[in-house]
């Protein structure tokens, strides 16, 4: 329980845990900062983080020009206050890894999925990662329930409902890559989508 509270405090203060230290959350005021990590190749969507009272930190899709973020949290919510946007010194160090709820642990073994928030309601160790799907011609950001060691479900908002696809449905998780050689990168991350 103490470890869980420390993680929440670190996230709220903008201090990053794990070995990834070059990403951070900036206050979002409706303008996209130049160091924001895009959620797609066209810079049409970005990754937002919101605090949901009594539930914890969640992520959702930021669309340039809009101040409101829609997120999933035991249903769907929207907010235009207390929004942060994911930024990094080098966005090229972040890639989308294809996975499923059933294969997440195997697919991310040795990788660094980005911690996006915390679910206070679940089992007491509710770490969330950043997930992405493509629906209705657009990228949608949601929460990967990384605290479940059996099936790591991906939850996202769509048409006013919270969606959890069947366990074999493919989604993507944002991971950090710290590979300096292009040939090493191509071999190690051949199943990744470069922020695409």
Number of strand elements: 15
- CA-based gyration radius: 15 Å
Shape: globular
Q: How much of the polypeptide forms β-strand, as a percent range?
A: 35-45%
Number of domains: 1
For the termini, the CA-CA separation is: 37 Å
- Average pLDDT rating: 82
Low confidence ranges = 1-19, 180-196
State the helical fraction: 10-25%
Plain-language structure description:
With 196 residues, the protein is mainly beta. The protein has one domain. The protein has helices spanning 2-13, 104-107, 182-188, and strands at residues 23-27, 46-52, 56-62, 69-72, 76-79, 83-88, 94-99, 112-113, 115-119, 126-135, 138-145, 154-158, 161-164, 171-176, 192-193. It has a 15-stranded antiparallel sheet that branches. Strand 12 (154-158) and strand 13 (161-164) form a beta hairpin. Mean pLDDT is 82; it is low at 1-19 and 180-196.
